[in-house]
Design goal:
A hairpin with a 5-residue loop joins strand 1 (230-237) and strand 2. It contains nine helices and two strands. It has helices at 2-37, 44-53, 58-88, 92-119, 124-127, 147-162, 166-185, 191-210, 212-223; strands spanning 230-237, 243-249. Helix 1 (2-37) runs antiparallel to helix 8 (191-210), helix 3 (58-88) packs across helix 7 and helix 4 packs across helix 8 (191-210). The longest helix is centred in the first third of the chain and has 36 residues, at 2-37. With 250 residues, the protein is mainly α. It is elongated and about 60 Å long. It has one domain (2-34, 56-249): Vanadium-containing Chloroperoxidase, domain 1 (Up-down Bundle). Helices cover 71% and strands 6% of the residues. A two-stranded antiparallel ribbon has the order 1-2.
C-alpha cells in the first residue's frame, strides 16, 4: 500500500510539474507574440477576438453580464464566509477550505498584478477599432492577463480539490468558463489574456494545495488553535472520470 501511494503521489507531482513548465513557457513567449501581432488583423488572437466580440446578442449580454459582475463578490465572499463560519462553528474542514481558497486568490492576484504592470498590454477596445465594448469599469487599463479569469479559475480549482464531486466542479468551472468568454465578448480582453488568466488561477491553487500543510498550520497558529491531526494522501482520477481525494484523519 505504501509503495502504491508513493508511486501515485510522485505521478501526480510529475503531472503538476509538467503543468507548471507549460504555463511558464506560455507566459514567457506570449508577450513577444502580442508585441508582434496585436494590431495585425491576421493575428490568430485578434481573429478569435473578433469572432467572439462580433457575436453580440441580448441573451448573451444579459447572461454574461451576470457572471462578469459576480466575480469580485464571489471571489471575496466565498473564502471569507467559509473561513468565518468554519471558525465560529469549529468546523475544521470548512475553515480549511476557506483559508486555502483565500490563499489561492491572494497568490493568483499577486502574479496577475506583476504581469499586468510589467507587460502593460493595451485592452482590445483601446488598441483596435470597431470593438463592441461594455463593462468598462475595470480596475486598470491593462489587458494581459485577465484578472477576472484568474480569480474565477483559482476559485474553481481550489473548490474542486476540496470537494471533488461533479455537483461542485461542473458548475464552478462552467461559471469560470463563462467569465472568461464574457471578458472577450465585452471587448475587454483577448483570448490569450483569458487563457493566461485561467492558467495562473489554476496554477496558484495547485501551488497552494501542494503547501496546504504549512499554510493551514500558520492559519491555526494565527487563530490560536491546534490543527487536527491528519494524513493527507493523494488525488487520483477515478474510473468514471471523477476525482478521488484520499485523506485520513485521526
Amino acid at each position: 500500500m505504501s509503495e502504491r501511494r508513493f508511486f501515485n503521489s510522485n505521478l501526480i507531482k510529475s503531472r503538476w510539474c509538467s503543468y507548471f513548465y507549460c504555463t511558464a513557457a506560455f507566459l514567457f513567449f506570449i508577450p513577444s507574440y502580442m508585441a508582434i501581432g496585436q494590431n495585425d488583423p491576421s493575428n490568430l488572437d485578434v481573429r478569435i477576438f473578433r469572432q467572439i466580440n462580433n457575436a453580440q446578442s441580448s441573451f448573451k449580454s444579459s447572461l454574461l453580464g451576470v457572471t462578469d459582475y459576480s466575480v469580485l463578490p464571489i471571489a471575496v465572499a466565498v473564502p471569507a464566509v467559509m473561513t468565518a463560519y468554519g471558525f465560529a462553528e469549529s468546523q475544521d474542514d470548512l475553515f480549511q477550505s476557506g483559508v486555502l481558497t483565500g490563499a489561492s486568490e491572494v497568490v493568483s492576484y499577486s502574479v496577475r498584478y506583476v504581469l499586468k504592470v510589467g507587460i502593460k498590454r493595451r485592452r482590445p477596445y483601446d488598441a483596435l477599432s470597431n470593438v463592441h465594448a461594455s463593462h468598462l469599469d475595470s480596475a486598470d487599463p491593462y489587458s494581459f492577463p485577465s484578472g477576472h479569469s484568474t480569480a474565477a479559475f483559482a476559485l474553481a480549482t481550489m473548490l474542486t480539490f476540496r470537494y471533488p464531486r461533479p455537483e461542485v466542479y461542473v458548475p464552478v468551472f462552467l461559471w469560470a468558463g463563462l467569465v472568461g468568454y464574457g471578458r472577450v465578448y465585452f471587448g475587454l480582453h483577448y483570448p490569450s489574456d483569458v487563457i493566461a488568466g485561467a492558467l495562473i488561477g489554476m496554477g496558484s491553487s495547485i501551488l497552494v494545495y501542494e503547501y496546504r500543510g504549512e499554510i493551514l498550520s500558520l492559519a491555526y497558529k494565527v487563530i490560536g488553535r491546534e490543527p487536527p491531526a491528519n494524513i493527507s494522501a493523494f488525488i487520483l482520477p477515478s474510473q468514471n472520470g471523477g476525482v478521488l481525494n484520499f485523506s485520513i484523519r485521526f
